[in-house]
Design goal:
The protein is of the alpha/beta class. The chain has two domains: 3-227, Spore Coat Polysaccharide Biosynthesis Protein SpsA, Chain A (Alpha-Beta Complex); 231-302. Helix content is 50%, strand content 12%. The chain is built from ten helices and seven strands. Strands 3-2-1-4-6-5-7 form a seven-stranded mixed beta sheet, with helices on both faces. It is elongated, with a radius of gyration of 26 Å.
């Protein structure tokens, strides 16, 4: 099979029929063998009934219904598990992503040998309250991940099949699938300018909290990517550095008092200066960080996935 098109959706009954017909027309025009996997993320409207009817009329359409609204990452994960196409396309169900982009995305994966191609909505039909935070978010993601993409959160992406089988999307990490792919060793990541269409039906399902959660997830995935297998390198180094700086501060306070006494001048009590307590607190925190790293290292070494690496080739 050439293509699997995965469409996660939540309360999109008005757009599903038009979208699937559009995708089917593109596939027929380009002679692609394909499947469309509609993942209903616990919709409260009539979305699932529409999917069932479409699946009855077209054998290339399949549906997955989640028991409740788990989020886009969970929907994509279920779709990835079911996908059988050599190239996997993800797109949103709100008709803001154009299926006409699919042939070129497919060509970039097949002919230009990209592992992943991410869409870039260079011209967006969104209010500034949404576009400005998005630009800040993408700039931070580029710096933290080292991946030069303009639009990490674009729902329109193309993947080589083995990429989506070797990564696990969880929580709200759908924004960082390129980062997860890079961690798994898939570093040939490209970008394509795609058309962003104005929303035709319904309203956006995302609020301002997605940007806050996005930055927190960015910090989380950046930390995990660097230190998940070696937590002692982070906690141990930070703890040791803090302990040594604090120890030198206390030694400095003691040496200062020694010179006061040796010169015959009245010396203040060591405990009368706030620097002593700051340094002592630093030593305690440094010790705790070191022990946290030590315990995390023990847990990491005993984890069942401590040698969970992706094998590229074997002869």
């Amino acid at each position: 099979m050439d293509l699997s098109v995965i469409v996660p959706l939540y309360n999109e009954e008005e757009s599903i029929t038009e979208l699937t017909k559009w995708i089917a027309d593109v596939m027929k025009k380009n002679n692609f063998s394909y499947e469309i996997i509609m993942v209903d993320d616990g919709s409260k409207d009539n979305s699932w009934n529409v999917i069932q009817k479409l699946a009855d009329d077209n054998n290339n359409i399949h549906g997955i219904k989640l028991k409740r609204n788990y989020g886009k990452s969970a929907a994509l994960h279920c779709g990835f598990q079911s996908a059988e196409g050599d190239v996997v396309i993800t797109m949103d169900a709100d008709l803001q992503d154009s299926p006409d982009e699919i042939p070129e995305l497919y060509r970039m994966i097949k002919d230009e040998h990209y592992d992943l191609v991410s869409g870039w909505k260079q011209k967006r039909y969104d209010p500034i309250s949404k576009t400005m935070p998005t630009k800040l978010f993408n700039a931070a993601a580029r710096v933290a991940s080292g991946i030069k993409l303009h639009d990490f959160n674009c729902g329109l992406k193309a993947y080589r099949k083995n990429v989506i089988k070797d990564i696990e999307v969880y929580g709200e990490m759908h924004r960082y699938i390129p980062v997860l792919a890079k961690q798994a060793g898939y570093t040939t990541i490209g970008e394509k300018v795609v058309i962003h269409r104005a929303r035709k039906f319904g309203v956006s399902k995302f609020g301002i909290n997605r940007f806050i959660n996005g930055f927190l997830d960015l910090l989380s995935i950046s930390f995990i990517s660097r230190f998940s297998k070696k937590p002692m390198h982070f906690f141990g180094s930070l703890g040791t550095l803090l302990f040594l700086i604090s120890l030198m501060a206390i030694v400095g306070i003691g040496v200062t008092k020694y010179f006061y006494l040796k010169s015959g001048h009245p010396a203040p009590l060591i405990t009368s200066t706030p620097y002593f307590y700051i340094a002592l607190t630093g030593m305690i925190l440094g010790t705790q960080l070191f022990l946290a790293g030590f315990l995390a290292e023990l847990i990491s070494r005993s984890a069942s996935n401590r040698n969970d690496y992706v094998i590229d080739k074997k002869i």
